[in-house]
Automatic annotation (TrEMBL):
InterPro entries: SsuA/THI5
Organism: Sorangium cellulosum So0157-2
All copies of domain SsuA/THI5-like, residue ranges: 91-278
Name of the featured protein: ABC transporter substrate-binding protein
Length: 358
């Protein structure tokens, strides 16, 4: 019997669903498949391209992350996000990925290194927040505070959202640059405080210094009465500070879904970068109202930038190397213990071919 001719895809697109089903039944008759299988094949649309159509995650109330913006802009479709609850820190977010409670999370790059060093089977796939002229995290005191220099921090308290992450690394870097020994540094008390409460505790003098990031910092400065001791931008300049991570096994099993996730994140970051700030903020507020989490939009009105250095969230070597070097210097890691290739990948980013990331 002569081989059957292939069906032209253009004809299938132009045909009615009934004709498509008849054609598929005829083809399936040759292959031995059932009517149900043919029906499913005829119903398959763009969704059939992806291994999974739902990504579970933890978010932060009062903010809109790049992937949440991406879904709202339609860049993630047909994949949908499934919000399973809030998180107060990056390490907690990544731990949920490790345990399989979520499909992706986000954290400070230094915290990601620590988790991978502890054998967490994860890898960073895209930067999602950073530091630039507009988006900085600073350490603030009241105007009448006697604290002026790094050594003044000894025997004082500093609030931050979590330990072992971005804010703690900034404090350690400041102390190191000012020749303060590890023994002296132990005299400083680091207190875990939700970001939304940092300003209040500072004004009530329950802490001596408060770590205030971007929108919380801008809101505090507008109210007045506080001044900065130092900021992450002063220490390191512009850099991508945190990344989205996924389990390596999830990436292996769902490469097309992961590629869409990273592509959507990249496009959302660039949309926010190129769109007037007022338009971006309006979009954020509308999204927050639409998702119905009973959130306050007061802080998001101060949004300035995601601060991501690399185009579309591209991760540069420096984004991880500076923290690797710090951990080696502090004795937390051995030289060469973890290769950069184990920490992040730009494989799925559509901008990876446009520039070499150094």
């Amino acid at each position: 019997m002569a081989p059957s001719r292939p069906v032209r895809s253009g004809l299938l697109r132009a045909a009615s669903p009934g004709v498509v089903l008849l054609v598929l039944l005829a083809l399936c008759g040759l292959a031995g498949c059932s009517r149900d299988e043919a029906s499913r094949a005829s119903a398959a649309g763009p969704e059939a391209e992806f291994e999974t159509l739902e990504l579970r995650y933890q978010g932060n109330n009062g903010t809109v992350s790049p992937i949440e913006l991406a879904e709202d802009l339609g860049y993630l479709a047909p994949i949908r996000l499934n919000f399973i609850g809030s998180t107060v820190s990056g390490p907690q977010s990544v731990q949920a990925v490790v345990t399989g409670d979520t499909d992706f999370g986000g954290a400070f790059n230094g915290a990601i290194i620590k988790l991978i060093a502890a054998k967490a089977p994860i890898i960073a796939v895209a930067g999602y927040y950073g530091v630039d002229e507009q988006r900085q995290s600073g350490f603030y005191v009241l105007n009448d505070s006697p604290l002026r220099a790094a050594r003044d921090l000894l025997d004082r308290s500093i609030s931050m959202n979590t330990l072992g992450a971005h804010s703690e690394f900034m404090v350690k870097e400041l102390l190191s640059r000012n020749q303060i020994t590890l023994e002296e540094a132990r005299r400083i008390t680091l207190l875990v405080v939700p970001p939304v409460n940092g300003e209040q505790l500072l004004r009530e003098k329950q802490v001596d210094v408060a770590s205030l990031g971007d929108i919380y910092r801008d809101r505090a400065l507008e109210r007045g009465g506080v001044r900065a001791l130092f900021s992450d931008y002063e220490l390191y300049g512009k850099f991508t500070a945190g990344s989205y991570v996924m389990k390596t096994s999830f990436i292996k099993d769902n490469p097309k879904t992961v590629r869409r996730f990273v592509e959507a994140t990249a496009k959302a970051i660039e949309w926010a970068r190129s769109t007037p700030r007022e338009t971006v903020v309006e979009r954020f507020i509308a999204l927050m109202k639409k998702r119905g989490r009973n959130e306050e939009d007061a802080a998001i009105r101060f949004w300035r930038s995601y601060g991501v250095a690399g185009k579309g969230g591209l991760i540069a070597e420096r984004d991880f190397q500076i923290w690797l070097d710090w951990m080696v210097k502090g004795g937390e890691l051995e030289p060469g213990e973890i290769a950069l290739s184990r920490l992040y990948t730009n494989e799925f980013n559509p901008y990876a071919n446009e520039q070499a990331v150094k």
